[in-house]
Amino acid sequence: MRRLAITVGVYGLAVGIAVAAEPRTPASSTPAPIHGPWNIPAIVEQLGSDHFTEREAASATLEKIGPEAIDALLAGTRSGNPEIRERAATLLTKLRRLSDSNNRLTAKRITLDYQDTPLGAALNDLKSRTGLNITLDPNLIANPLRKVTCRTGELPAWEALEAFCQAAQLREEFRLDLDVPKSTNARRGYMPPAQAPNADAVPVVLVDGTPDKLVGSRTSAVRVLVLPATFPGHKVTLGTGETTLALDIAPIPGLGWQDVVGVKINKLIDDSGRAGGAGVDRNVLPNHDPSGMVVFARPGVALRFDINGNTIQPEQLPNPRIVTVPLKIATTSSRLLKRLEGSVFGEVHVPNQPLITVTSPEKHLNSPFDGPNELKFTVLEFKEPPGPGGLGTIKVQLEYPSDFGLNMRRRGFNNLGWPEAPRMVGSGNRVEAFDAAGKPFPMASNAFTGMSDDGMLAIQTYTMTFRPGRGSPAKLVVLGHKQVTVEVPFVLENVPLP
C-alpha cells in the first residue's frame, strides 16, 4: 500500500537566479538596515522600492515584526504598485499562518504528581488533564492495577505523556494501518466503506515494555516523532541515498486538526557533515501547497466488488497519523542524521466563523462575493413585502467545493478510491440576517442543496421570507467553518536512519 508522501525542499537555486539578475546597486546607495521602532506603513511602501536590497530588507523586517504588520500588509495588497501587492500578499500569508499557529498550537502544560497510584487511575487522570486520547491494550498489560510513581515539573502535554511512560515502563505501539470496523449491515450491492478517521481520533496505544527513546518534537499541541528504525513505513533504496522516513504526526484532540497538507524540509545534515534535502516521491500526483512549493496528494485504496456486484469491504485503511517524507541523503552510507529541520503544514477546522458579509443586499443583486475555501455567495433576488399581508423575499445562493471535489483534489483524478479525505464535522454554512443596529433580523428560511454537473461544487439555495412593518435586513452574513493552515516547526537531532 502506498502511503501519504509529502515533502518540499529549499529553493535556493531560484533565489540565487533572482539575485544574479538584479542590477547591482552602487555601494554608496546601499540602504542601511531598518531598525525599530517600526513605521509599518512606510516599510510596506519600501516593498516597492527601485532597489532590490531595499525590497528584501523591507520583507525581512516585516516578517520580523510578525502579526502586528498584518493590517498594513492587507492595505498593501490593494496598492497600485504590483511589486508591493505581490510581496505584501506573500508576507500576509506567512504572518496569518504564524498568527493562527501561535493561537492554536500552544500546548497545555501540566505537573504530574503520582505516588504509588494504580496504573489505571493515574492514566485516567493524565487523560482528563491533557485531553490526549490514550488507551491501554488489555492483552499486552500484565497488571493494570500495579502502582506508578511519577513526579515532574510543569511540562507540555506530549512531554508529560513521555515522562509518564518512562515512570510506568510503558511503550507506545505504532501501526501503519488500522483495522476497519466490520459492517453490521447485510444488504447486498454497493455499501459505502467506513469513513477514514481524523488523526486525533486514532488513540495513543500503550503496552508493557521499555519505552522507545524516539527523536521528536513534543513542545506544541502537535507531536512530530520519527518512528523506530524497524517500523514498516520506512523505505530505503540502497546505494542511492534515497530514504523515505515515516513520521508520526499526532494532534491533541479538540484542536480541529483535519489533515497534513505538506512537510517542508529546511535543513538536513548527515553524520558525515554533508547537506542533503527533500527527496521526490514519483508515485503520487502534485496537489495544493500552502507554502508556495510542491507537495503531493494522498493515494487512495481501490474499492473491490465480487461477481454479484457486492462491495468487498477493505480490511484495513492507512493510519492518518503516519506521514512518509522522502529524503535525499548526501552520504549513501550514513546511519544517522545529525540534524533535520523543517515544518509540518496542517489544516485546522475553525467552526462558526463569519465568512462573508454583504451590507445593503438589495444593491448587490447577482454580484458574487468571494469568501475563504473557494466559497461564493450571490444575492439572487430581493423583494420588499408587497403590502400589509404580504411577505418580503430574499433568495441567495452559496457555492463551495463538494466533499467529492475535495476528495479528488487531495488524491487526484487518476487516483480514485478509498478512503475519502476526512470530513469536517459540522462544516455546513448558514446565512443570517441583521438590522442596521447589528441585531438579528427575524426571517423564516428553507434551503435546497444540489451539485454541479461535474460533482465538484455543492450549490445551496436559500429562500428567506420576512414580514412587513419591521423594515428589511441591512446585512446578510454567511457563517460556517473556516479552514486555516498552521505550521508546526521541528528541529530534530541525531535521527537514526532505517
Structural description of this entry:
- The radius of gyration is 27 Å and the shape is globular.
- The chain is α+β, with helices and mostly antiparallel strands and 498 residues long.
- The protein is 19% helix and 36% strand.
- It starts with 11 loop residues before the first helix and ends with a strand.
- Helix 2 (40-46) packs antiparallel against helix 3 and helix 4 (70-76) packs antiparallel against helix 5 (82-104).
- A hairpin with a 7-residue loop joins strand 13 (286-287) and strand 14.
- It folds into three domains: 31-104, Leucine-rich Repeat Variant (Alpha Horseshoe); 109-348 and 486-496, no CATH class; 350-483, Immunoglobulin-like (Sandwich).
